């Protein structure tokens, strides 16, 4: 299956020649390598990714119920500029356009997620009277809605919303008829608000069963056609933001991490992840026992995977970088590969870290067919076990000196010099080599389990006009990260696919629409989609032009809203 072509066919091209061929600014290793799609292994999936809440909108339509983010977005001050995803990119109505766009890009696969509250909403649907109030006074409507939800039940307790099933069926069928593989995330940060109200969402063990139930509905409804499943997206990042920093719903935290009305930043993230891991393992068990023989799919989990490098050459900082990897990445992956938390975490957390019962360890062990890596950036790591006491350094504060952070302070600068170029997102610095390093880390620690890069992409701030069309920085980012990914594969890493984040500018959680990751621009007023230069670059690459081409090496065309609409009619 793997061509093993790299050693023979990857041509080293002198920098100057590349520069003559196109306009991208060159830097180092990644620019010297003339990599093409055909240099990746046979069967390697190239795709683009989105998530339901970030693009769908239509949050009150066709029986969908409120999710945690719907409520959170409408609490003043939660989201930059008071943005919400009530409409988002209106993908719910424009999905055919977007699928035509994906088709015109030439992707092999499309990663998207299922909205839990669209498939398993509350049983209560809004009356026209309530809808009227909702559009005027969202919050008062939330109260009305929640009351009904509590009275009538929802989530696992309500019925399956056939309109929701129909929506995803249409997406899946349209993708497959265009030769695009659906790569489905079951849970990507959004869940029915009712599950929060009833028992506190992921802080409760009850959420495990609700999640398994939701996943089963997905397997039953879509598993005849979906062969790639991700159970949960980034449990590590979600729990950090939701229960440690308090910036994602349900906004729990405690000092010194933040000022929230409730929460315990030292402990709650551990509990939430514990429940997510067990929810994952139980889901995979059911898939393997009841669905796999017929459906023949694979199921993985997706981890937020920053790379960490020691801030100094000091041994203690080197250990801190290792700890940062263990406390962020191995926190999720050790349990699903080996059946328990990393020894480093057990050592520093002691009894705060929940324990798995022996039967739980059994179902956790080897409960992932692949590892999904979301990789964007690299940070420096500085020790906070010894250093803070020794040099009286003020950096080991605000929680860096606590077990939940692994006693690690992370920084983006060394001696005033940033680790890489900044992007639209705080702490997302461009360090292409990190892609190779993170893949190598997973390869070594998890004995080269199959991996997918489930997300990688570049964000620019809203006010950067060149990002609207001439997004050269995004192209540079993508090509350099891909070059390092290619090198990791050449060195034996079993990576089976790469998903670019993201297809179109979308709702970037607490940043709202103030940062943009898309290779398509979405006009904020009309919601029309137009390709940026990076879309042409990706299209070129997917048609086997070199990574270093911006202008086409083939004759190709990309769709915009008008064309993709016409096509989809
Ligand atoms: C990872 C998350 O899965 C995705 O939802 C988010 O938009 C990107 N990171 C960028 O922050």
TrEMBL record:
Q: Where is the signal peptide?
A: 1-27
- Alphabetical UniProt keywords: Hydrolase, Signal
Determine the domain of life of the protein's source.
Eukaryota
SUPFAM superfamilies the UniProt entry points to: (Trans)glycosidases
Q: Is Signal a UniProt keyword of this protein?
A: yes
Q: Name one GO molecular function term.
A: beta-glucosidase activity
Q: Which Gene3D superfamilies match?
A: Glycosidases
List this protein's GO terms for biological process: carbohydrate metabolic process
Q: Which residues form a coiled coil?
A: none
Say which family it is in.
Belongs to the glycosyl hydrolase 1 family.
Q: What is this protein called?
A: Beta-glucosidase 18-like
What organism does the UniProt record list as the source? Olea europaea subsp. europaea
Origin organism lineage: Eukaryota, Viridiplantae, Streptophyta, Embryophyta, Tracheophyta
